[in-house]
Amino acid sequence: MAGPLKSGKVKTNINLSRKKFAIVVAEWNAEITEALYSGAVESLIKNGVKKQNIIRKTVPGTFELTLGSLWAAEDKSISAVISLGCVIQGDTPHFDYICQAVAYGITEVNIKTKKPVIFGVLTTLNKQQAIDRAGGKYGNKGEEAALTAISMLSF
Ligand code: DLZ
After folding, report:
1. What gap in Å lies between CA 121 and CA 76, rounded to an integer?
2. Which helix (H) or strand (E) holds 123?
3. What is the CA radius of gyration of the chain?
4. CA dist., res. 83 & res. 99, Å (int)
5. How far is the CA of 33 from the centre of ligand 1 (A)?
6. Is the ipTM of this complex over 0.95?
7. 120 with 131: CB under 8 angstroms?
8. In terms of Cα–Cα distance, which of 81, 4, 7 is closest to 43?
9. Pick from 30, 92, 28: which is nearest to 64 by CA?
């Protein structure tokens, strides 16, 4: 995995067994987003999060991650939200609109709720690039997003 979180475990002095996480999963490209979800869950558990403290929410597509993540973050019991989606470029500019909207939307949710809302969205040119980043040769974006959530809670 690129970035600072290579070991799969985050050094933290917070008690993760008491923290509750929401994972919001987009259904579009489900084969990929389910792999991201598994990576995120495994990573949270490996770092001491209790299975019953991981709440899954599903939205239709990546565009809907913004509102779904806002709803999840508004729940007072939730410490951090992990937003998972996969947008694969097609023949029209739709890709650009969805990617821009969700990146901006998730940023807004972070600011509005003052909670870590992690951008676990793959934006790829083709399906193979997505497979490579959903448990393939370039790691798992879901795992990376989970580690980022824990890092942010340790701020
Ligand atoms: C419409 C659409 C398209 C073309 N591609 C994707 C995609 O690659 N990944 C994804 O998560 N969602 C896609 N969507 C659906 C939109 O995110 C959204 O659900 C619809 O535009 C309805 O708001």
Report:
1. 24
2. strand 117-124
3. 14
4. 13
5. 13
6. yes
7. no
8. 7
9. 28
Per-residue pLDDT of the chain (155 residues; tens, 9 = 90+): 455 566 688 888 899 999 999 999 999 999 999 999 999 999 999 999 999 999 999 999 999 999 999 999 999 999 999 999 999 998 888 899 999 999 999 999 999 999 999 999 999 999 999 999 999 999 999 999 999 999 999 99
Edge-first strand listing for the sheet containing 21-26: 54-59, 21-26, 80-88, 117-124
Q: Please report the atom of ligand 1 found closest to the CA of residue 60.
A: 19
Any residues with Cβ below 6 Å from ligand 1, and which? 26, 28-29, 60-64, 85-88, 90, 94, 98
Euclidean distance between CA atoms 99 and 105, whole angstroms: 10
Tokens of 114: 């003052």
Q: What's the distance, CA 116 to chain centroid?
A: 11
Instruction: Please state which CATH class domain 18-153 belongs to.
Output: alpha beta
